[in-house]
Amino acid sequence: MSRRTFLGAGGLFAFLLIWELVARSGVVEATLLPAPSKLPATLISEVTLGFWHKMVLASLNHYLIGLISGSLLGVLVGSAVAMFPTLDAVQSWLARLLRPIPPLAWIPFAIIWFGISETAAAFIIAIGVFWINYFTAYTAVRAVDPDLIELAASFGHRSLGASLRKVIMPAAAPGILSGLRAGLGQGWMTVVAAELFGITGIGQRMNEAAGLLATEVVIVYMLTIALLYGLSDMLFVAAQNRVLRWQR
Amino acid sequence: MAAIVELNGIAAQFPGAEKPVFADIDLSIARGEFVIVVGASGAGKSTLLRVIAGLLAPSSGTIAHEIENRPDRREIAMVFQEARLMPWRKVSDNVALGLEGLTVSADERKQRIADALKLVGLADYGNRWAHELSGGQRQRVGIARGLAVDPDLLLMDEPFGALDAITRQSLQDELLRIWKETGKSILFVTHDIDEAVYLGDRVLLLGGAPAKVVRSYDVDAPRPRSREGEEVGRVGAQVKADLSTLFDEGGGI
């Protein structure tokens, strides 16, 4: 075990220990700060009652629909805008206007348009993910070396489709993939907020539990999100390294 | 000797520019001939190659190709100053770039990549990434990529301009060997007069605004040549003198 891993594990353990001691000392009320030793039992009860996987699956469903549609549209629009100067000019002010609006500010409209529904949650997630991917894809495609496009053209790859396949997409892949990865994280951040309004999922369960001061349930779901995010990021990085194995 | 490419009254002009980069260029390249273009920067040397390669439409004039057009080869291939390798492709896949889109079987493609890499002395490098190569090796891959499509005419745009002196000399000799082995015609742009007269059968001096062929020199030195050879030195001195006259007239800039 490396020194860094050792210290990292030690730091986490020390944090849990201090937390446990503070919770047990009675300085803080138990509902305000549940002891970490109570969490495994809470998790088991959530699982046996059937809440845990129901909520995780519901959130995962919103998350995936929002993530996939937001990423796809973001990459598509960002790349297209980067490739066609006229399109770029037409949308430049519009993008400047819409991009700074936080995804959560769309919640009222999401509910008005789609009701308290899965679609509303997916929509809010998609918006956040869209802008991240739009911007990174735009930047990545703009940065493609025009000399390589000319090179491909000189060897007969002149159509738009050919230069996309031979040059633009592979050259922009590192940037686009880093945008997809950032979107992965952004998606988990909005998924909880989107569900606070009663759409079934982790966020809704957390809100319920908080209302009953069942803070240990809230913490179980907080850690669940951390776990899901860590897992999806790990899987993504593994895939990314395979795709980009040409990079130093 | 039959001409494989013949340019008649070729001019090129960039959109929005007041006058053409060059005008009235007549140029005929014979099969197997090694032709050099020199001239001050801005004289449109690279632009001329792009017009011949079909990357840029001439604003006037005609280009006639006496080149055999077959679906398994490209008539003209280009080698650029910066090797322009695609970093996401292995060396052999970089060499394959021009073969994609040609009617070439998988086996033949493999064979042609191997042959081209062997010809430039990189037979064992097919599985490397571009960033693992030195500058000279990268440029060799660029040449192999051009040779793989079996062109009649190889256009070379200052291919050794970015290399150190020793690498440049050794690649010049390599290129002469490849040229002799393959019998390709080469149109080679450089601003290095010593390189021009060492390599070329014929040297064209481009100058003026718009640029035209100011003068053409035959280098009648037998091959293999010596860099210090009498004829090579004589023509080189002549080109240098004419080039500085051009500068004095202000037409070269």
What this model shows, in words?
The complex is a heterodimer of chains A (248) and B (253). By secondary structure, chain A is mainly alpha-helical. Chain A folds into 2 domains: 1-33; 38-243, MetI-like fold. Chain A has helices at 3-25, 39-48, 51-83, 85-98, 107-114, 118-142, 146-154, 160-195, 202-211, 215-243. In chain A, helix 3 (51-83) runs antiparallel to helix 8 and helix 9 packs antiparallel against helix 10 (215-243). The longest helix of chain A is centred in the C-terminal third of the chain and has 36 residues, at 160-195. The mean pLDDT of chain A is 94. In chain B, helix 3 (106-119) crosses helix 4 (135-148) and helix 6 crosses helix 7 (230-249). A 6-stranded mixed β-sheet of chain B has the order 5-6-7-3-8-9, sandwiched between helices. The mean pLDDT of chain B is 92. Chain B is globular and about 55 Å long. Chain B folds into 2 domains: 1-67 and 154-162 and 185-253, Rossmann fold, CATH 3.40.50.300; 69-151, Rossmann fold (3-Layer(aba) Sandwich), CATH 3.40.50. The longest helix of chain B has 20 residues, at 230-249. Chain B has 253 residues and is an alpha/beta fold. Chain B has 7 helices and 9 strands. The chains are: A mainly alpha (248), B alpha/beta (253). Chain A binds chain B through residues 147-148, 150-157, 162, 166-167, 170-171, 173, 246-248, and chain B through 53, 55, 74, 77-78, 80, 82, 84, 86-90, 97-98, 100-102, 129, 131, 145, 149.
